[in-house]
Design brief:
The protein has 467 residues and is an alpha/beta fold. The protein has helices at 39-42, 81-90, 108-119, 138-149, 169-182, 193-205, 212-217, 220-237, 249-260, 271-275, 278-281, 302-312, 351-360, 366-380; strands spanning 4-13, 18-26, 29-35, 48-51, 56-59, 61-66, 71-72, 75-76, 93-101, 126-132, 154-158, 185-189, 241-243, 265-269, 317-318, 398-408, 427-437, 440-444, 447-448.
């Protein structure tokens, strides 16, 4: 039994085009597009017709940086793969790439298997995995080759968190050399964790324990220094580099300089760095703990540099780094010691709407919105054109988006499994109306019709900017 759906009358927006077109979906894939009102479009027939008049028809979002059920600081991220992917769908995201974690002393395979077990049968939308490499040795380097072959083509390392995920320069260089050979992409958390730990210890000794000091000790210069070092190590290794959650003017400058030199260096930022600031970290009565993440929020003046980086393509991707911890019982672990506040913020449901607000505000164009949230993440991590666009042969991951609808973001109405919103009370223009994942309607006119287990694991090819 084949199934067909037609989406009629909407403005189809991809990274490259805007066209009033009807979209024919057959058996979970986009079968054809034709300009609305033409004989070709009129000839589309289907059991199900969705009227998208006055709406945008956009590819489902690809969020390449989430942490569902992640263990951190003695607790776990509050979203499971089930709740987190459902919330993603509500926000117009139809693919996530989450991070499987290698525990020190164990193999990459054991870490990857553990994450497959968490996700399988529980996801509302499609998912893939990156691999966090915590323990670089001859065995894990060999395993990297095997993982690339089976579709886990990106590996994250940390210059931060000594004693947890930290890799030294020698370990980083070895992993980069390996990725230069096997086609993998190294993703880097670029902060000088050794120096930061000294500043944390000194701040606490001075009695500086409030959440705002989290931002003060994790200095922008230490993000920039680590970014510079990661770039040069990648250059020595002859490897590409993707720097995650870039937050500071000085770090953007390092990426821009490297790209001007022609190096295969890429950067992402996140909505929290574009819309929030140290003003949030300084909120009274420990409220600032809600905004503790790493890299930290920066003073407002850094936002303009991030928007400029997104316009000039010195930053290519906006992910969420979704890693939610409830304020009650989890963030509160750091009362009296900011270094014990679990690092992470919720956002998987808000990214597409916040970036549409950036279109309304004139920071980016409509096509750039789709580029940084859908197409480039799909290309960067080897899923394009299956994901990230609306074109014949692509998975029918499609969002009907109402650009006029207004909403107020609030924990009372969001679907993430967390007791606060980082964007509480913020008014935005534009809202997800209907979402299809591989042709199946998972959000129908603001009603959830999806189910756990619809989402499937998606193996990935290597970074498509390097071929």
């Amino acid at each position: 039994m084949s199934s067909r759906t037609v989406i009629r009358g909407g403005l189809v927006i991809t990274a490259s085009d805007e066209i009033h077109a009807d979209v024919l979906i057959e058996d979970g894939r986009v079968a054809a597009l034709a300009a609305s009102g033409t004989p070709a479009a009129e000839a589309f027939t289907a059991e199900s017709v969705i009227d998208a008049t006055g709406k945008y028809v956009i590819p489902g979002g690809v969020d390449p940086h989430t942490h569902m059920e992640m263990p951190f600081g003695g607790t776990y991220a509050a979203d499971t793969f089930e709740t987190g992917t459902r919330a993603a769908a509500w926000g117009g995201t139809t693919t996530i790439v989450d991070f499987a974690i290698q525990t020190v002393g164990q193999s990459l395979r054991e870490g990857l298997d553990a994450w497959h077990a968490k996700a399988e049968g529980n996801c509302a939308i499609d998912y893939g995995f990156h691999m966090i490499v915590s323990d670089v040795n001859q065995e894990t380097l060999k395993e990297m080759d095997l993982l690339v072959e089976e579709g886990v083509t990106s590996f994250k390392q940390f210059m931060a968190y000594p004693g947890v995920f930290y890799s030294d320069d020698g370990q980083i260089l070895r992993a980069m050399q390996r990725s230069a050979e096997n086609g993998g992409l190294i993703m880097m958390h670029a902060e000088n964790g050794i120096a930061i730990d000294v500043l944390v210890e000194q701040a606490l000794a001075r009695g500086e324990t409030d959440p705002r000091y989290h931002g003060e000790v994790r200095k922008a210069l230490l993000e920039a220094e680590a970014t510079h070092r990661a770039i040069r190590l990648a250059q020595v290794a002859g490897a590409p580099l993707y720097v995650v959650h870039v937050s500071a003017i000085e770090a953007v400058a390092e990426l821009a300089r490297a790209r001007d030199e022609g190096l295969p260096v890429f950067g992402e930022t996140c909505p929290q760095y574009l819309f929030l600031s140290t003003d949030n970290l300084a909120e009274p009565d420990f409220e600032g703990a809600k905004y503790v993440c790493s890299t930290p929020l920066r003073p407002k003046e850094h936002q303009a540099a991030l928007w400029r980086g997104l316009r000039t393509n010195d930053l290519q991707v906006v992910s969420t780094d979704h890693c939610p911890f409830c304020f009650v019982g989890q963030k509160e672990l750091g009362r009296g010691d900011f270094s014990k506040i679990p690092n992470g913020m919720p956002g998987v449901e808000n990214r597409m709407d916040l970036l549409h607000q950036a279109v309304v505000d004139g920071h980016i164009s409509r096509r750039r919105w789709i580029e940084i949230a859908c197409a480039t993440p799909a290309r960067m991590f080897g899923m394009y054109p299956k994901k990230g666009t609306i074109a014949p042969g692509a998975d029918a991951d499609v969002v009907i988006y109402d650009p006029q609808a207004e909403q107020v973001i609030s924990a009372e109405t969001h679907h993430m499994n967390v007791d606060y919103s980082a964007y509480e009370g913020r008014r935005t223009t534009g809202r997800v109306e209907t979402v299809l994942s591989r042709g199946e309607i998972v959000i129908n006119q603001r009603e959830y019709t999806g189910h756990a287990g619809h989402g499937v694991y998606t193996p990935r090819s290597t970074c498509q900017y390097l071929n």
